[in-house]
Amino acid sequence: MAQDDATRDAPPPLVSILIPVFNQQSHVREALRSAQGQSYPNIEILVHDDGSTDGTSKIVSEIAAADPRIRVTRAARNQGVASARNRLIERARGNFICWLDGDDIMLPDKVRAQRDFLEENPTIIAVAAAIRRINAAGESLPANNWWQKPGRREIFIPELATAAMMYRRSALMGAFPLRPLRNGSDIDLVLRVAELGEIVNMPVTLYVQRIHEGQMSRSAASGPVIAIASNIYRALGLGDIIAGPEIDEAAILGRILRDRHVLLSGVANKGENGREHRFYLVLVLLHTVRRTGTPGDRLATLAGCVRHAPWALVQVVDYWLKRRLRTRSRTP
Fold it and tell me: Are residues 156 and 244 in the same domain?
């Protein structure tokens, strides 16, 4: 009986909220307030200022001084979001770990809902949620309840909102550290965590993501594509194209281009089960030939896609066209 009472009276598991910030003075106060306002009681809020040069540091310090749950570290110079996230993970003590970008917002029950879900589903290693997208002024953007189908053990692009993830600590450490892809380290992390167990989506909005001009352009970066390509290489038994702490994106794209015949043949041999493989491989190859290669390479790549994955080629073109239309609809 005494043991049951002790168990009942024990504090709930600690959850670490990790917040990397860099020059986000316009929104960081609201982000921190949303972390402080979580309905789940046992949290720590870790902030890493990655060399901000505006008023971000002052705002964070003022808020942290009044809340012992907040612990802050700072880098003397900007080292990139992957480095900032790694520093935060190293300091985290929680049984469960989640992210909050310095210009986004957690809805009040996010931590509670995701922690409860993981406690009730011990075989699930990470969980995402739906997100609502807003602009710099806080106004909702089109298609603002965004979530896609549940993640699976073998996924080639995170069909979920990576910013809204909560991980079991053991799963996150199994893929630690984040690798320094430009604008792709979060995708690479989820894809490697997915190899360790099942990730699912909660079809409930728990996170608000702010889209604004101050963010780095994601469309111009090859990091997400390299993360997906790396996962395809591993799935085909070809090793990992990301090796070591330094990443030469141009060299990796060059290798993908050289290996296109092997990659296309590999996914073609997977038959019906390779449908998803083919879509994402075509996406990777078309991005790669846009960034590098000769006109001859482009023709050869298109010919290879037509031969090995014609339906995937149609799907990718359709995906790009719809994405461009959505982007234009958000432009004032």
Answer: no
Query: DSSP label at 140?
Result: B
Same domain assignment for residues 180 and 309: no
Structural domain includes residue 215: no
d(CA 193, CA 176): 9
235 and 199 housed in the same domain = no
Q: What is the mean pLDDT of the chain?
A: 87
Query: Do residues 153 and 269 share a domain?
Result: no
Are residues 187 and 196 in contact, defined by beta-carbon separation less than 8 angstroms?
no
Total tally of structural domains belonging to the chain? 2
For the segment 138-186, what is each residue's pLDDT rounded down to a tens digit? Answer: 888 875 444 444 444 344 455 678 899 999 999 999 999 999 888 889 9
Q: pLDDT at position 37, please?
A: 98
Mean pLDDT, rounded, for 74-87: 95
pLDDT for residue 10 is more than 60: yes
How far apart (Å, rounded) are the C-alpha atoms in residues 278 and 129? 27
Sign, Cα dihedral of 228, 231, 237, 241 = positive
Distance of alpha carbon 58 from alpha carbon 102, whole angstroms = 14
The pLDDT, as a whole number, for residue 261 is 94
Model-level pTM greater than 0.85?
A: yes
pLDDT (average), residues 302-306: 95
Rounded CA-CA distance 134/294 in Å is 40
Residues facing residue 133 across a β-bridge = 209
Are 48 and 192 within one domain?
yes
Examine the fold and report which residue of 210, 241, 268 is the final residue of a domain before the chain moves on. Answer: 210
Tell me the CATH number at 53. 3.90.550.10
Range of the domain at 315: 223-330
Q: Is residue 3 part of a domain?
A: no
Per-position DSSP letters for 18-45, written without gaps between them: EEEESS-TTTHHHHHHHHHT-SSSSEEE
What share of the chain has pLDDT > 90, as a percent? 63
Residues in contact with 201: Cβ distance below 8 Å, sequence separation at least 6, in sequence order: 127, 128, 129, 130, 147, 148, 149, 150, 151, 159, 160
**126 three-class SS:** strand
